[in-house]
Structure formats: C-alpha cells, structure tokens
Sequence to fold (313 residues):
Amino acid sequence: MNLDDIHEDLREGFKGNLFFPPIHWPGVLWLGKKLFKIPSQGIVDGVTLIERSYGENEVRIYMPDGKISGTGLVILHGGGLIGGDPNMNDWNGSWFAKQLGAIVFSPGYRTAPENPAPAAINDAWAFWHWLQREADGFGVNKDKIVLSGVSAGGGLATCLTHRLSDENSNMPVCLVLTYPMLDDKTATDKSLDDVKHLMWANKANRVGWESYLGANLVGAASVPDYLVASRREDLSGLPPTFIGVGDIDLFYRENIEYAARLQQAGVHCETEVLPSAPHGFDYFSKDTEMITGLRVNMAKFMSTHLGPVPAND
Fold:
C-alpha cells in the first residue's frame, strides 16, 4: 500500500508519515523505545490538562473549562501493546471533554516486552477501580462513565469489560473503540505480510502480540482469560459498543467479525467503516471532515447511553 491507496481527504495528513520502523528487525524496537517519544497533538481550547498518578502509572485528565456534566470518559491509548503514550489522546480526549462536558481520563499502562501480559490488562483494571474510588472527587458519577480505546487500547478496553462482567463489578455505560487490536490469530496469518498495511502491518502486529503473550501463545488453542478480546466465547451481557475502523486497516476483518459476534449475542453494536482509511487516521488526519464526522457520531453514541445528566455551573 502507498499514499494513493488512502482516501483523498486523508492523504495530506499521512503525507510524510508513512514510514513505520521495521520493529521485526532485531534491536529496532529496543532502539525506538529508547530514543523516540510520540508527540502530543495538542489540547483543544477551553479544556485544561492536569496530571495525576495511580499506582506507578500516570493519568492525563482533560477538564472542560465550562459546564461539567458529571460524566466521565476513559480512553486507553494505542501502541501495539509495546509502546504508546497517554499524550496520544490529548487532542481527541480534550475534544470529547469539551463536546460532552465530561471529565476525560487517559491513563498510562505498562507495555511489553519489558512488561508482558498480564501487566497491561492488570493496569487497566487497576485504573478502573481507582477511578471508581476517586470519581466523586472529580465530580463524576461513577455510573456514568464511558470506556474507550484506540488500537491496542481498544483491545485492552474490551478485555477489561470482559473481566468486569465476570467480577460483577461496576461496568461502563458503553464501549467506544477505534480500530481495536482484538485478535492474536491475525498475526499468525502470514499471507497478510505481503499486503503491507499502512502504519501497522502484520509483521509489526506479530511483534506486538509475541512481545505481550509470548511467542508460544500467539495463535495457540487457548490463552489465559482477559488477554485477547476475540478469544472470549460468551459475549452476552456486555455494554453497548461502537467500533470505528477503516476498510484498509489490518484490523478491519477482526473488527467486523467481533461486531457480528456481539450482535449475535444480543449486544447492541454500531460499526462505522471509513473508506480507504488506514490505521492511525484519528492521529494523522484529525481535522478532516471524515474523521470529525466519525468523532461526532461517537459522541452521539456516548450521549445516548449516558442518558440525561444534570449539568453544573
């Protein structure tokens, strides 16, 4: 794939950003994690950023300067389970904070290979319970919180709902996912290596899953609970879910299949497929009409499931 394969409305944002380090080469992943930090896309006007910590991880919190609705939104960042940074959610998180009047949280979590599974999902679980305890202090109704995630963060958010459901813990009102990383078996399909998907190709995907699960578990007959979202058999009783994904994304097929399984299990699921949109579209093309439209639809979905919430001056 190349720039011509991307929808014309998105090309400008990806121009100059199509190179992805060959992390399947020995040493490249280690070097990249040592030398490069992902830049923030900035904060939307009318929103204030504050930083806190939970355990040994940081959380970035986006506070709308105007009315606060009493609702919350958690966004787990992407990075293929091997990288990423909470600041990747700065622009989207602050946009949703302003749009919804919500307090938005972007927590960090440990990544592989230094911290393999179950470190990331344990951190996501720990953050959720930290927020349940601290919600009142932020003016957030703990029964009015949306859970969201991007790429690897989308997979973690999905696994977290599975775990919370089994524990009978307080659940998010809905789940909003952007091209989530749901299925380790995709990485085992080496025919996908030749497609060379933009921004996150299958060789990189294999590194991510092998670093997180261990090479012996990727594609295995079974894996421990809450590590791979698509491996869960019973999807009944999960929160209403929205999935946004491009049709040239490596994760397109696994996202559509998971959405279909949710519907078969009686879970309300809405899927928005963006034509010729590659992985990372919300980061590199955040201001385009297509991506703004997706973001608006996500906000409407969240508002529908949050229900009426009194606004405070």
In short: The beta strands are 47-54, 57-64, 72-76, 103-107, 145-150, 175-178, 241-246, 269-274. The radius of gyration is 18 Å.
